[in-house]
Amino acid sequence: MTESLQPTSADSNVYNLVVVNAGTSNPSSTAMLAEKTRDCLAQTALEAGAELRVSVIELRDLQAEIGNGLVSGLSGPGIEQANATIAKGDGLIAATPVFKAESSALFNGFFQLLDRDVLIGTPVILEATAGTTRHALVVDGQMRSQFAYLRALVVPTSLFAASEDWNDPALGRRIRRASRELWMLMKSRFSSQLRETNWEGYQHDYGSANSGDDIDLNTDLMKLATGGSAL
Description:
It comes from Gulosibacter chungangensis. The chain has 231 residues and is α/β, with parallel strands linked by helices. The chain has helices spanning 29-47, 63-72, 77-87, 105-113, 138-149, 169-187, 190-198, 220-225; strands at 14-21, 51-58, 91-99, 102-103, 123-129, 153-154, 159-161. Strands 1, 2, 3, 4, 5, 6 and 7 form a 7-stranded mixed sheet that branches.
Protein backbone atom coordinates (compact mmCIF):
# COMPACT_ATOMS: atom_id res chain seq x y z
CA MET A 1 0.00 0.00 0.00
CA THR A 2 1.39 3.42 -0.94
CA GLU A 3 1.90 5.73 2.02
CA SER A 4 2.00 9.51 1.91
CA LEU A 5 4.11 12.00 3.79
CA GLN A 6 1.52 13.70 5.95
CA PRO A 7 1.91 16.97 7.85
CA THR A 8 1.03 16.02 11.41
CA SER A 9 0.19 17.93 14.56
CA ALA A 10 -1.03 16.70 17.92
CA ASP A 11 -3.01 19.92 18.34
CA SER A 12 -5.49 20.98 15.66
CA ASN A 13 -4.72 24.62 16.47
CA VAL A 14 -0.95 24.26 16.01
CA TYR A 15 0.61 24.81 12.59
CA ASN A 16 4.12 23.89 11.49
CA LEU A 17 6.08 26.30 9.32
CA VAL A 18 9.41 25.38 7.75
CA VAL A 19 11.85 28.08 6.61
CA VAL A 20 14.60 27.12 4.15
CA ASN A 21 17.29 29.79 4.10
CA ALA A 22 19.99 29.63 1.40
CA GLY A 23 21.72 32.79 2.55
CA THR A 24 25.38 32.25 3.35
CA SER A 25 26.53 35.54 4.88
CA ASN A 26 26.00 36.73 8.43
CA PRO A 27 24.06 38.98 8.60
CA SER A 28 22.12 37.89 5.53
CA SER A 29 19.53 39.87 3.61
CA THR A 30 17.99 36.55 2.51
CA ALA A 31 17.61 35.44 6.12
CA MET A 32 16.20 38.86 7.03
CA LEU A 33 13.50 38.64 4.35
CA ALA A 34 12.53 35.15 5.51
CA GLU A 35 12.44 36.30 9.15
CA LYS A 36 10.20 39.26 8.36
CA THR A 37 7.82 36.95 6.53
CA ARG A 38 7.89 34.43 9.37
CA ASP A 39 7.16 37.12 11.97
CA CYS A 40 4.28 38.49 9.92
CA LEU A 41 2.82 35.00 9.53
CA ALA A 42 3.22 34.32 13.26
CA GLN A 43 1.29 37.51 14.06
CA THR A 44 -1.46 36.53 11.62
CA ALA A 45 -1.72 33.09 13.26
CA LEU A 46 -1.77 34.65 16.73
CA GLU A 47 -4.62 36.96 15.75
CA ALA A 48 -6.52 33.87 14.60
CA GLY A 49 -5.95 32.20 17.98
CA ALA A 50 -3.48 29.68 16.56
CA GLU A 51 0.11 28.76 17.37
CA LEU A 52 2.84 28.74 14.74
CA ARG A 53 5.79 26.43 15.30
CA VAL A 54 8.80 27.29 13.16
CA SER A 55 11.67 25.06 12.01
CA VAL A 56 14.57 26.71 10.17
CA ILE A 57 16.82 24.81 7.76
CA GLU A 58 20.08 26.68 7.18
CA LEU A 59 21.52 25.44 3.90
CA ARG A 60 25.01 26.76 4.63
CA ASP A 61 25.16 24.13 7.39
CA LEU A 62 24.40 21.44 4.79
CA GLN A 63 26.76 22.61 2.07
CA ALA A 64 29.08 19.58 2.32
CA GLU A 65 26.15 17.13 2.26
CA ILE A 66 24.56 18.91 -0.69
CA GLY A 67 27.79 18.77 -2.70
CA ASN A 68 28.40 15.13 -1.87
CA GLY A 69 24.79 14.25 -2.57
CA LEU A 70 24.82 15.80 -6.03
CA VAL A 71 27.91 13.77 -6.93
CA SER A 72 27.07 10.47 -5.25
CA GLY A 73 23.27 10.53 -5.32
CA LEU A 74 23.24 9.65 -1.61
CA SER A 75 21.59 11.66 1.15
CA GLY A 76 23.42 12.40 4.37
CA PRO A 77 21.79 12.65 7.82
CA GLY A 78 21.21 16.39 7.49
CA ILE A 79 19.32 15.99 4.22
CA GLU A 80 17.31 13.11 5.68
CA GLN A 81 16.39 15.25 8.69
CA ALA A 82 15.39 18.09 6.36
CA ASN A 83 13.14 15.70 4.46
CA ALA A 84 11.44 14.67 7.70
CA THR A 85 11.05 18.28 8.86
CA ILE A 86 9.52 19.45 5.58
CA ALA A 87 7.22 16.42 5.49
CA LYS A 88 5.65 17.56 8.77
CA GLY A 89 5.22 21.15 7.63
CA ASP A 90 1.89 22.79 6.93
CA GLY A 91 3.68 25.53 4.99
CA LEU A 92 7.11 26.51 3.68
CA ILE A 93 9.10 29.68 3.13
CA ALA A 94 11.90 29.09 0.60
CA ALA A 95 14.42 31.95 0.38
CA THR A 96 17.55 32.30 -1.74
CA PRO A 97 20.04 34.93 -2.84
CA VAL A 98 20.36 35.47 -6.58
CA PHE A 99 23.69 34.82 -8.28
CA LYS A 100 24.17 35.51 -12.01
CA ALA A 101 20.42 35.76 -12.68
CA GLU A 102 19.58 32.46 -10.95
CA SER A 103 18.75 31.14 -7.53
CA SER A 104 21.87 29.91 -5.77
CA ALA A 105 23.48 26.54 -6.50
CA LEU A 106 23.08 25.69 -2.82
CA PHE A 107 19.33 26.30 -3.04
CA ASN A 108 18.88 24.35 -6.28
CA GLY A 109 21.04 21.48 -5.10
CA PHE A 110 19.09 21.11 -1.87
CA PHE A 111 15.72 20.85 -3.58
CA GLN A 112 17.15 18.45 -6.16
CA LEU A 113 18.16 16.11 -3.34
CA LEU A 114 14.86 16.18 -1.46
CA ASP A 115 12.46 13.28 -1.86
CA ARG A 116 10.42 14.17 -4.94
CA ASP A 117 7.15 13.55 -3.10
CA VAL A 118 7.81 15.59 0.02
CA LEU A 119 6.38 18.89 -1.27
CA ILE A 120 3.22 17.61 -2.96
CA GLY A 121 0.48 20.11 -2.15
CA THR A 122 2.61 22.04 0.37
CA PRO A 123 1.83 25.79 0.38
CA VAL A 124 5.01 27.78 -0.31
CA ILE A 125 6.15 31.40 -0.37
CA LEU A 126 9.07 31.88 -2.76
CA GLU A 127 11.58 34.59 -1.86
CA ALA A 128 14.78 35.96 -3.35
CA THR A 129 17.19 38.81 -2.65
CA ALA A 130 19.73 40.53 -4.88
CA GLY A 131 21.73 43.72 -5.18
CA THR A 132 19.72 45.02 -8.12
CA THR A 133 16.12 44.93 -9.33
CA ARG A 134 17.32 43.49 -12.64
CA HIS A 135 16.96 40.05 -11.02
CA ALA A 136 13.36 40.57 -9.91
CA LEU A 137 11.95 38.03 -12.38
CA VAL A 138 14.08 35.17 -11.05
CA VAL A 139 11.38 34.21 -8.56
CA ASP A 140 8.49 33.97 -11.00
CA GLY A 141 10.55 33.12 -14.08
CA GLN A 142 12.70 30.35 -12.63
CA MET A 143 11.80 29.37 -9.07
CA ARG A 144 8.05 29.09 -9.63
CA SER A 145 8.52 26.54 -12.43
CA GLN A 146 10.96 24.56 -10.25
CA PHE A 147 8.39 24.26 -7.48
CA ALA A 148 5.64 23.45 -9.96
CA TYR A 149 7.74 20.43 -10.93
CA LEU A 150 7.96 19.49 -7.24
CA ARG A 151 4.14 19.75 -7.15
CA ALA A 152 4.11 22.35 -4.39
CA LEU A 153 1.36 24.97 -4.13
CA VAL A 154 3.07 28.35 -4.53
CA VAL A 155 1.08 31.34 -3.25
CA PRO A 156 0.21 34.06 -5.79
CA THR A 157 2.50 36.69 -4.23
CA SER A 158 6.23 36.02 -4.50
CA LEU A 159 8.75 38.17 -2.64
CA PHE A 160 11.85 39.82 -4.04
CA ALA A 161 14.01 42.42 -2.32
CA ALA A 162 16.84 44.39 -3.89
CA SER A 163 19.02 46.78 -1.92
CA GLU A 164 16.69 49.74 -2.49
CA ASP A 165 13.57 47.84 -1.42
CA TRP A 166 14.38 47.62 2.29
CA ASN A 167 13.34 51.23 2.95
CA ASP A 168 10.28 51.04 0.71
CA PRO A 169 6.94 50.51 2.54
CA ALA A 170 5.77 48.52 -0.49
CA LEU A 171 7.97 45.59 0.58
CA GLY A 172 6.17 45.38 3.91
CA ARG A 173 2.82 45.38 2.14
CA ARG A 174 3.92 42.54 -0.14
CA ILE A 175 5.17 40.56 2.86
CA ARG A 176 1.81 40.95 4.61
CA ARG A 177 -0.06 39.94 1.47
CA ALA A 178 2.07 36.84 0.87
CA SER A 179 1.86 35.86 4.55
CA ARG A 180 -1.92 36.05 4.55
CA GLU A 181 -2.10 33.96 1.39
CA LEU A 182 0.10 31.31 2.98
CA TRP A 183 -1.86 31.40 6.22
CA MET A 184 -5.18 30.81 4.48
CA LEU A 185 -3.79 27.69 2.80
CA MET A 186 -2.11 26.45 5.98
CA LYS A 187 -5.25 27.02 8.02
CA SER A 188 -7.27 24.91 5.58
CA ARG A 189 -4.78 22.01 5.96
CA PHE A 190 -4.78 21.91 2.17
CA SER A 191 -1.73 19.67 1.92
CA SER A 192 -3.10 17.06 4.32
CA GLN A 193 -6.50 16.98 2.64
CA LEU A 194 -4.98 16.67 -0.83
CA ARG A 195 -2.74 13.78 0.20
CA GLU A 196 -5.55 11.98 2.00
CA THR A 197 -7.92 12.18 -0.95
CA ASN A 198 -5.71 12.17 -4.04
CA TRP A 199 -2.34 10.60 -3.17
CA GLU A 200 -2.82 7.66 -5.54
CA GLY A 201 -3.43 10.10 -8.38
CA TYR A 202 0.22 11.23 -8.41
CA GLN A 203 3.15 9.52 -10.05
CA HIS A 204 5.73 8.45 -7.46
CA ASP A 205 9.35 7.68 -8.24
CA TYR A 206 10.45 4.09 -7.90
CA GLY A 207 12.73 3.87 -4.92
CA SER A 208 11.44 7.02 -3.26
CA ALA A 209 10.16 7.05 0.30
CA ASN A 210 6.61 6.98 -1.07
CA SER A 211 6.83 4.68 -4.05
CA GLY A 212 5.15 1.93 -2.05
CA ASP A 213 5.98 -1.73 -1.71
CA ASP A 214 3.43 -3.07 -4.18
CA ILE A 215 5.79 -3.23 -7.19
CA ASP A 216 6.13 -6.71 -8.65
CA LEU A 217 9.83 -7.20 -9.37
CA ASN A 218 9.18 -10.55 -11.04
CA THR A 219 7.39 -9.23 -14.10
CA ASP A 220 9.13 -9.59 -17.47
CA LEU A 221 9.43 -5.80 -17.76
CA MET A 222 11.10 -5.42 -14.37
CA LYS A 223 13.47 -8.31 -15.08
CA LEU A 224 14.58 -6.60 -18.29
CA ALA A 225 14.89 -3.22 -16.54
CA THR A 226 17.24 -4.71 -13.95
CA GLY A 227 19.43 -6.48 -16.49
CA GLY A 228 17.88 -9.92 -16.18
CA SER A 229 16.21 -12.16 -18.73
CA ALA A 230 12.50 -12.24 -19.41
CA LEU A 231 12.77 -15.78 -20.75
